[in-house]
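input
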Amino acid sequence: MGVAQQQKDPLERDFAMFKPLVVGCLALWLGAAPAAAAEDFLTWRHDFATRAQQAGISQATLNSALNTIDAPNNRIIALDQKQPEKKVTFSEYIDRVVSEERVGTGTARLRDYQDLLKSVSKKYGVPPEIMVSLWGVETHYGVITGGFPVVESLATLAFEGRRRDFFETELLAALKILDQGHIGLDAFIGSWAGAMGQCQFMPTSFENYAVDGDGDGHRDIWTNPKDIFPSIANYLKQHGWKAGQNWGRPVQLPEGMDLSEAALKDPKPLSEWRKLGVQTHTGNPLPGGGTMMASLWVMDDNPAQAFLVYDNAQVLMKWNRSRYFVLSVGLLADAI
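output
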């Protein structure tokens, strides 16, 4: 072996000399990253717990529900940061949400709870089929309510910081729910984002709109239909639901109708939509009084997927600001 082959490049020689040190430091840094994050979380947790106690949360609730969480849940962070998948078309969405199976189950549930639903409807002015439809779209009639501990989810999202003020407010409300005994900690389960129970209320929505329908001192939106249905109806009523008025209807549009944003921006009386040639989906004249206001929604820029929606559709938008969601609730309610 020649001398030239025996000698190493100076950079290679120096790296070989310091390689153990570099590798060791790298290992320490990688190991320290989660530890540092955990330490930061514990600092945030201590600060929040202090503020929560000042807001009236008992030490017992803080000890059992919050102070047992030593680190953020990385799966929840990943779900929050996940990029949206490719856009689902309106037709695909409706086929999935307003499926034959969901219509059939909803029809059965409407029948199973008809007496309770009629009583709630009479009190709040919300039709039974709308309550059942919201229940069905949100949690498949109470079957799919989430599998994440609510306090851990909200603590993780508050610590993450993307919407810290929002999630700290929700976390404080969640701790109040536990403090007031509406649900036990083991059963305090919801979505990864903290939506809870069979109607998927966020904790502040629970505070403001959940109802103790059977008067037992608890607002149980997890297991008790006597609380679930009044809570749904109360939310809608408090947001302006108009009794005796439908959500809207699918319609036929005249050929060549102006579908620009400017033309569709403002609601118009039904009488004006009739003059413009809009008909029911079966081709009949639009019913209703001439002063009733309606907006035209054309989904995916497809004139064959057009709907006139009334004030109650705007109320459903307060529940979820997706037109796909609102129309699926309305169409499912009509089907069941």
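quick obs: The longest strand covers residues 293-298.
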